[in-house]
Amino acid sequence: MTAQPHEHLTAAVLRPVRGHHAFEGCVEQLATAIRLGVYPVGTLLPPERELAERLAVSRATLREAIAALRQAGLVETKRGRGGGSTVTSQARGRFTGGLAKVSATTKSEWLDALEFRRVVEPGAAHLAASHDLTGPDRDRLAAAETGVHDANGKRAHRQADSRLHLTIASLSGSALLQQAVTAVQSTLDSMLGAIPALEPNIGHSHRQHRQICRAIVDGRPDRARKVMEDHCDDTAALLRGLLG
Hints:
Layout: H1 7-13, H2 22-35, H3 48-55, H4 59-71, E1 75-78, E2 84-87, H5 104-130, H6 135-150, H7 154-171, H8 175-192, H9 199-217, H10 221-243
Antiparallel strand pairs: 1-2
């Protein structure tokens, strides 16, 4: 017998998402619904049109989110008549299995790190944008941003991403902020290593990096802080949804 979704719970976990955070929001909400058993293993997810309307996103964005869930081993998709996306037995296996070895204390520390990051990294961006940067400072920032965009492979991209964030922290002029961002990036590296590299999120991240760097170079502290906050929020959304 095919498993049935708990439709009476969907309103509690699936809500309209913000437009410019649509992809990350969809992944977070759908992954959470699967992880919490609203859509048990063997359940067929609602049709794309219905889900897109419920989440207030385009069908193209929804398809990208479902592709991310598929890449994460949470669903399998069959095309054509009678097809759709079904929650698989791997939902708590191949993808999240690595977390089973992590202690409850470590998981709690990881989630706390996401909150801490949301405070320190926007602050570092704000301070960096408040300074009059030298030519070499601007060159370092531009090189770091380009390095992320040009990186090939998940590990190389992750390291280049960390270098950009550490460069921004260094431009803040605060040694304590640099230490804080270094600690946060170290923890973030462990968390991001447990999820697949998702192309839509990477593309979105590149655009945010460009906006953050532009705000810093242009001396717009409030803009730099706001975009960095959005950037941290999007990463946290993916991690909360996929890692639980």
